[in-house]
Amino acid sequence: MDLQDNKRKWKNRTLTASLEFALTGIMTAIKEERNMHKHAVTALLVVIAGLIFGVSATEWLFLFLSIFLVIAFEIMNSAIENVVDLASDYHFSMLAKNAKDMAAGAVLVISVFALLVGMIIFLPKIWQLIF
């Protein structure tokens, strides 16, 4: 099998194939990444809180933006970690460490954004309930 045949084998030729690969990637992240479980539980709790507190359409947009960004960044972080591990052959390299640390840092930054969004939306509603 030559290089061209190998490229054709893995090239997604249809929308269905592209979606299948993407969904497989999401399912792999859910099954194999510990933090994805935490993000999924947190997302579910945020949606439940949004329903309980009756957030506005604009607030829903910010909540869903936060949820989807955190999940997307976590998937990208996992992909970067896998590629770095593959490229470094699982041997320590300062460049590999830096790449993995920066990817994890990106998840932390977007998670802080999500936390701030949640606080801006929910703290006043909780405050109203208490007082």
Automatic annotation (TrEMBL):
It is found in: Cell membrane. Substrate binds at residue 74. GO terms for cellular component: plasma membrane. Mn(2+), Zn(2+), Cd(2+) and Co(2+) support activity to lesser extents. The keyword ATP-binding applies. A divalent metal cation binds at residues 33, 81. Its cofactor is Mg(2+). It comes from the Bacteria. Pfam families: DAGK_prokar (PF01219). The chain crosses the membrane at residues 36-53, 102-123. The active site is at residue 74. One of its GO terms (biological process) is phospholipid biosynthetic process. GO terms for molecular function: ATP binding; kinase activity; metal ion binding. CDD domains: UDPK_IM_like (cd14265). Keywords: ATP-binding, Cell membrane, Kinase, Lipid biosynthesis, Lipid metabolism, Magnesium, Membrane, Metal-binding, Nucleotide-binding, Phospholipid biosynthesis, Phospholipid metabolism, Transferase, Transmembrane, Transmembrane helix. InterPro entries: DAGK, DAGK_sf, UDPK. ATP binds at residues 33, 81, 100-101. It is a multi-pass membrane protein. Belongs to the bacterial diacylglycerol kinase family. This is Diacylglycerol kinase. It comes from Streptococcus himalayensis. The gene is dgkA.
